[in-house]
Each structure stands twice: as C-alpha cells, then as structure tokens.
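Q: Please design a sequence for this.
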C-alpha cells in the first residue's frame, strides 16, 4: 500500500480533489452536501453512502499522500 502512495504523483491527487472531489460545483460542492447529510443524520440511502465514498476518495488519497510525504524523507 505504501508503494502505491509513493507512486501516485501529488499533482494527480490534487487534480482528483479539484475535479471528482468537488464536482458538481454548483450550487455547492457535492462532497459538502453529503457531509452535511452525514452530520445531520440523513445519510441513509446506500446510493448516498456510495456517493460520499466516491467523492471523498480523492481527499483521502491526498491526505494519505501528504502524510506519507511528511514521514518519509
């Protein structure tokens, strides 16, 4: 798993966050809408849970990549 993080370019992770992670952009980023649903306790449908996972994946990848970059020199 750590080899995978080392091979992923940082620019690709950032691009994923800015596209899939935020799309659709209007009226608000989709991930933000799903996180508000999660906080309100209204995230019940499996399709909504999958949607949250899909839009959160680039952000989780970026966080893991940045954490890996700070620990490995």
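A: Design:
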């Amino acid at each position: 798993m750590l080899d995978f993080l080392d091979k992923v370019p940082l620019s690709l992770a950032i691009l994923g966050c800015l596209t899939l992670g935020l799309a659709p952009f209007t009226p608000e980023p989709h991930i933000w809408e799903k996180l508000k649903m999660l906080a309100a306790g209204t995230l019940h449908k499996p399709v909504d849970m999958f949607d949250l996972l899909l839009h959160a994946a680039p952000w989780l990848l970026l966080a893991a990549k940045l954490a890996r970059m700070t620990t490995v020199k």
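Q: Thanks. Anything notable?
A: The chain has four helices and no strands. The chain has one domain: 2-71.
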